[in-house]
Amino acid sequence: MTYTYLESYGCTANDEFIRKLEAYLKKRNIDIVKDPSKADTIVLNTCCVIKSTENAMLKKIKQYKSKRLIVTGCLARIFPEKIKKSDNDVIILDQRYFYKLFEEYENIVAKDGKIGIVSIGEGCIGDCAYCITKIARGPLVSKPPVDIVNEVKALVDEGAVEIRLTGQDVGAYGHDSSYSLPALLRDIAEIDKRFYVRVGMMNPYSLKDERRLNELIEAFKNDKIFKFLHLPVQSGSDTVLKDMNRRYSVDDFLNIVRSFRSELNGILTLSTDFIVGYPSETEEDFKMSMELLHRCMPNKVNITRYSPRPFTQCEDRDILGRIKKARSRIMTEETKKIYSEINKGWIGKIVRGVTTEKGEKCGVVVRDISYHQIVVRDNLVLGTESDIKIDQDCNTYFVGYRVIK
Question: How far is 372 from 393, CA to CA, in rounded Å?
Fold first, then answer.
């Protein structure tokens, strides 16, 4: 008998892949273990979005040299020679190889407890100067809507209550076809089951068209859609955005945020991303990013220090690491203040939420319609809905308890 261990890093699209691989192996009656030391075969699903992640992946490959090792994911697509240098006996397989295998069975879906993940396409319509992901994933290829809807149906039939739609740019869905994201969300919402949808990251460039934006906001009003908007801005300077080749302005970003907030009545959760220390970012540009942070007041911020990547337009450009570290620290401290300012308005409120997963240490995680992460110490049954009173702010999440009316 052989035993397989699965290990995955990176984006939600990678999460979807590894969950589908797990489902496929189980259908093939292949035993999956949680401890790599007990495995005969290890599948390592990799990411290389920044240099430190790439280095961590190569370190893992060396660590698993004594095993039969299969490496897939973005590192396998872009740096096969580096992988071979770390372990010449490694087997390198593209994710596309596995997706073809998945076709052997109907309803191979990505499910983790009560959470289902559905990739709605691969690639994007952008050409950002710093991004290695576009090189790994290629141009946008949208998945047919009927396939997506059937996948969501299969997941909710298996008990999923949260569906995460994912892609390199979910907002670009349908740009390569006659369909659109708003139409897809309407189709998904028509499924006659109780579940909620978290829409993944959408780049501002994909939402600049006013008609498309308005249609998307209308689709978000459906009770089955979490009021969660992940809209990465990356910089508060139009000069830097132009150098990044992001193809939108700060005003474009703010217009999208204002449009969503004006229609969703104070229940919208905004998540955004900033890159600090971009090669052309001056102190004045960084100051503009800090100002934008306060203008948009996000509920969540992902801060990344710029990392030069091979094969990109600015691979040979960088600034001092101490500058990037300092700017990252300054922005991180400011986001904590913003979180506290926003979160205090939720303390004492009673919200309706669905229990999606077990807590890391104890209790469960509940998501309300705004997609707040609320840790509840009661052992609520996963998949059930409850009234929760929020009574503690932990900066990046809340703590609450069930209210019985």
Answer: 11
